[in-house]
Amino acid sequence: MDASYEARGVLVSSRGGVLSTATDVARWLQMLLLNGQHPETNERVVPAAIIHQVATGIMGWRLPSVEGARRASLSE
Q: What domain of life (predicted)?
């Protein structure tokens, strides 16, 4: 977060959401587009495999009871 906000004491609770600046969000989005590399330093800050996994929406777990219930309701 921009240091000038902290110096002035202008911080507001986000109530569980994301509290950021437009600059920080832009940097975060650039990092996602660069597959985990920091846009200014080119340092890898998130493994590319993690970026790919999150981008595909496949998180690697299954809930058999929910899937079974869904199949059962569809077959009725």
A: Eukaryota
